[in-house]
Amino acid sequence: MTRTLTQHHQRPSRTAPAPVADAVGRARDWAEIQERMLVPLYEAVYERLEVRAGTRVLGLGCGTGLALLLATTRGARVTGVDSDTERLALARERLAAGTDRDGPAAPSGDAGTLLPEERMADAGAEPGRAPYDLITAFQPIGSAADDVKGLGPALRTAIPLAGRGTPVVLAGWGPPERCATDAVLRVAGRLTDRLRKGGWRPAHRDDLEDVAARAGLHPDGSGRVACPFGYADQDSAVRGLLSTGVFDGAIRATDRRQVEKEIGEALHPHLRRDGTVWMPNVFRYLIARTP
């Protein structure tokens, strides 16, 4: 079972104002703290769609590659694309290390292919390359302004790389009443609303279906998965949540210290006696098929 509580990491001094995003540091925080929170989602999807040896997986918004690494342990051949070059660099490290370790790995020690999003078409450019068997977009929809529209171009490029009827998996937040983190994310909404700058919005029930319809995909089932967010301490929780990018608009509207302070206050109801932070959440996924 994957551990959900994260290890404690030293944080630099806050004596100087911090920028909206230290690209390297935020990518590390995503890889070391936040990304693992979605492991139950990755595993549930792979189990349901029977990802196994020979399955060709294309991961959109692959981040630092944890979902791809889990697919390789099932024998899948993976390709990942992301717009964040720092996350892609960490994904390369992670996949290379994964193929060198003991235990299941991709066939022939293949560490997979990783590409910046603008080069996604290259993922199917090799002569004789078989179509993809599965396309995943695990980055949750429904927490940032325009994220529903933003996924459209990536899907339009990815769909021709797969065969007819190939499953495409979209993921999003579940109902707010079942997501303890929703109250923390609303901090971003409050701060951006003060200056009428977008950056966060509440998830809508039909977000995933809307994205699928716009991409010409046909829904073919869905599911819900418990993905609790657990952190070693409040500081790790703040760092992990900031690494998602959801609070970038709030930082631009105010400043990083203010955002960190208000996230910390919103986390108080979820602090446990031992100092850890625990927030139960439910995520939803939609399986849609290519035309």
Tell me what you see in this structure.
Helices cover 36% and strands 18% of the residues. The protein has 10 helices and 9 strands. Strand 2, helix 4 and strand 3 form a beta-alpha-beta unit. It is globular and about 55 Å long. The protein starts with 22 loop residues before the first helix and ends with a strand.
Radius of gyration: 19 Å
Number of strands: 9
Query: In sequence order, what are the helices and strands, one letter per element?
Result: HHEHEHEEHEHHEEHHHEE
**Helix content bin:** 25-40%
Strand order of the largest sheet: 3-2-1-4-5-9-6
Q: Which word captures the global form?
A: globular
Per DSSP, what share of the residues sits in E-state strands of 2 or more residues? 15-25%
Round the mean pLDDT to the nearest integer and report it: 86
Structural class, by secondary structure, is alpha/beta
Largest sheet: 7 strands, mixed
Unreliable residue stretches: 1-18, 101-109
Give the end-to-end Cα distance, rounded to a whole number of Å: 36 Å
Summary keywords:
7-stranded mixed β-sheet, two-stranded antiparallel ribbon, 291 residues, alpha/beta, 10 helices
Question: Brief overview, please?
Answer:
The chain is an alpha/beta fold. Helix content is 36%, strand content 18%.
What topology emerges from the helices and strands here?
Elements: H1 23-34, H2 39-48, E1 56-60, H3 66-72, E2 77-82, H4 85-100, E3 113-116, E4 134-141, H5 147-158, E5 167-173, H6 182-194, H7 207-214, E6 218-226, E7 229-231, H8 234-242, H9 248-253, H10 256-267, E8 277-279, E9 282-289
Parallel strand pairs: 1-2, 1-4, 2-3, 4-5
Antiparallel strand pairs: 5-9, 6-9, 7-8
Helix pairs in contact: 1-8, 2-3, 3-4, 5-7, 6-10, 8-10
